[in-house]
Design goal:
The complex is a heterodimer of chains A (about 350) and B (about 260). By secondary structure, chain A is an all-alpha fold. Chain A has 2 domains: about 55 residues; about 280 residues, no CATH class. Chain A has 15 helices and no strands. The longest helix of chain A has about 35 residues. By secondary structure, chain B is of the alpha/beta class. Chain B folds into 2 domains: about 110 residues, no CATH class; about 130 residues, OB fold (Dihydrolipoamide Acetyltransferase, E2P) (Beta Barrel), CATH 2.40.50. The chains are: A mainly alpha (about 350), B alpha/beta (about 260). At the A-B interface, helix 1, helix 2, helix 9, helix 10 and helix 12 of A face helix 1, helix 2, helix 4 and helix 5 of B.
Chain lengths: ~350, ~260
């Protein structure tokens, strides 16, 4: 905002002495913006009592409830991921990662994937963390393996899966095996075929310490938060528009049910810590189809696609998302056939 | 400056619904509150810090910063933003974060109600949660208050049929049915947030339907299904109502 002020010269600026006398002062809009802000807060508070009671369309209300719920529910995980990523950028020296991860990239990918098991968060947290890892010089393929594995195989998610499927520990095992497998495979494929120009590796200032921490956290939060809202908008719309009965109609065809639940996982964008309960409630579907839902959901969904495109660039997302989706469907079909 | 204000708005809105009211219960599970308060506070503080910094050194252009860094003896290329935009301006997509704030204040999204519950009308309702150890027998002559989920579970999944002949009291909102003489008392069940809500419904007979979406307390008895052949989970269980009372919406609208 404040830099816009440079353009807001009075029309007679050409005649005034160069540089204009406004230079060197504090940005002239600075005293205005706080009042705009106060006015906005006033409008919001008054609107809460004057506007909200008149918005009674049930479809709009349901849509906005789901939209706000997705944003509100994801925010703590996003904040956690952003803070962790900023801490990695600001306080962990780059040399740490070269020591911690194997020197050879092909060996670093599975190690980074397995390391995903220690980050207790969902997929919103893993995108900024992976970007922070890349910014600190970790091989992109290894950071991507971490990105895919961590929301699916961390202890919180595995415990919630075990709770949602009582008496079926093989579901937890299958989820772990299939998710880690997809993450490592996707990492290796990216290492072999990926090109550097597809991926926008976020680079950070050379600064360290609290200032860098604040700058990284603020930038990531504004960025990732904005794309989270894009994903929330899409997911809430599809959630309200597409009737679930369309989906259950195809539950009896085995291969089709796998594809349909993969699609449902992408569309619903449910947090990976809750998706097991939703999968368990889809009783009409085969265990393999439910496994597909659990493997695809944490790796590919609408809000995640928006977050990835925003963080790593569109040309990255356009290649990486289909790759992950195909791998995830194949891996869960195979694992389901062998284990379930 | 603007980015500090966006963060301030978002953090403030999240704190408003979690720390200073119970509105957050319309969107997420009760256990989520501490996380929301922490997240809201972090975002708010980050906004304050951004504003304070901006106030202390109001917008330094990139070239000026590099020059200053050089003067201070640092490498100027240390400030290379690989993706070609000036960080002091902030990404434009960040403005979208105002949308949930506007939605929270201007639409004030209520808890999911009959519209969401009726959407699932054509599909079979979810199965009851499997209770491994079985249900405890119901004792006493007074009406027993129980969650709708438990009623559905006992009606479908209890081999001892513990509901038979017992008066129970259910609290939920009213959903119209296609059949004329019945309506549903329903409650949404959350696993994590409102995006994964599932409708739990019990069909009520023997009482006129209150207006759609009113919260009611229904006292009545279970009607055991006539045929046992119907597979569990394809129809909502039924009850005969003795009394139906209007109640205010509970603070915790979901089960």
């Amino acid at each position: 905002m404040s830099d816009r002020a440079m353009l807001d010269w009075p029309p007679d600026a050409d005649d005034s002495p160069v540089p204009p006398s406004s230079w060197g002062r504090k940005a002239p809009t600075a005293p205005v913006l706080p009042w705009v802000f106060v006015a906005l807060v006033g409008v919001l508070i008054v609107g809460r009592y004057l506007v909200a009671p008149f918005i009674t369309s049930p479809a709009l209300q349901t849509w906005s409830t789901i939209f706000v719920a997705i944003c509100v529910q994801a925010l703590p995980f996003l904040v956690f991921g952003v803070l962790l990523s900023a801490a990695i950028t600001a306080f962990v020296p780059a040399s740490f990662w070269t020591k911690a991860l194997p020197r050879r990239p092909y060996a670093a990918v599975p190690v980074a994937g397995a390391a995903g098991a220690v980050l207790p968060g969902c997929e919103c947290a893993s995108v900024p963390v992976a970007s922070g890892l890349m910014a600190r010089g970790v091989t992109p393929a290894a950071a991507l393996a971490f990105l895919l594995a961590s929301p699916a195989i961390n202890p919180v998610v595995l415990v919630s899966t075990a709770v949602a499927f009582p008496n079926r520990p093989e579901m937890v095992l299958a989820r772990f095996v299939a998710s880690l497998g997809v993450a490592v495979l996707a990492g290796w494929l990216w290492l072999r075929f990926g090109r550097t120009e597809w991926l926008r590796v976020p680079r950070r200032t050379g600064e360290r310490g609290w200032r860098a921490f604040h700058e990284a956290a603020q930038h990531d939060l504004l960025h990732a938060g904005g794309f989270l809202v894009v994903g929330g908008l899409a997911a809430a719309t599809l959630n309200v528009v597409v009737p679930r009965s369309w989906l259950t109609a195809v539950a009896d065809v085995p291969w089709l049910s796998v594809l349909v639940l993969a699609l449902l996982a992408v569309v619903l964008s449910i947090c990976s810590e809750a998706d097991a309960f939703v999968a368990a409630s889809l009783t009409a579907f085969s265990p393999t189809a439910k496994l597909t839902f659990l493997v695809v959901g944490p790796m590919v969904d609408l809000k995640l696609i928006a977050l990835q495109a925003g963080t790593f660039g569109r040309s990255f997302a356009a290649r990486f998302v289909p790759l992950t989706l195909v791998l995830a469907v194949l891996a869960s079909a195979l694992t389901g056939w062998m284990l379930l | 400056m603007a980015q500090g204000l966006i963060l301030l708005l978002l953090g403030g809105a999240v704190l408003r619904i979690s720390a200073f009211s119970t509105t957050y219960l319309n969107y997420v599970k009760p256990g989520f509150r501490p996380f929301l308060i922490v997240a809201g506070a972090v975002v708010f503080v980050l906004g304050v810090v951004t504003l304070v910094q901006e106030w202390r050194e109001p917008h330094v252009p990139e070239a000026e910063r590099v020059r200053r860094a050089e003067q201070a003896g640092q490498r100027p290329d240390g400030h290379d933003h690989g993706h070609g935009h000036d960080h002091s301006r902030g990404p434009r997509v960040a403005w979208l974060m105002c949308l949930p704030v506007f939605a929270i204040f201007l639409i004030a999204p209520p808890a999911l109600g009959s519209f969401a519950a009726a959407r699932e009308d054509s599909s079979p309702p979810p199965p009851p949660p499997e209770v491994v150890e079985g249900y405890a027998p119901l004792v006493g002559d007074k009406p027993i208050a129980m969650p709708i989920g438990e009623f559905v579970g006992r009606a479908w999944g209890d081999p001892k049929r513990s509901l038979t002949g017992k008066q129970v009291r259910l609290t939920g909102f009213v959903v119209r049915s296609k059949k004329k003489d019945t309506w549903y008392v329903a409650r949404m069940q959350l696993n994590c947030c409102a995006a994964d809500a599932i409708a739990l419904k019990v069909a009520v007979r023997g009482a006129p339907a209150p207006p759609e979406n009113t919260w009611v307390e229904v006292t009545g008895t279970w009607i055991p299904p006539k045929s046992r052949k119907l597979p569990n989970g394809t129809v909502p269980p039924e009850m005969t109502a003795v009394s139906v009372n209007k109640v205010p919406q509970p603070t915790e609208p979901y089960e």
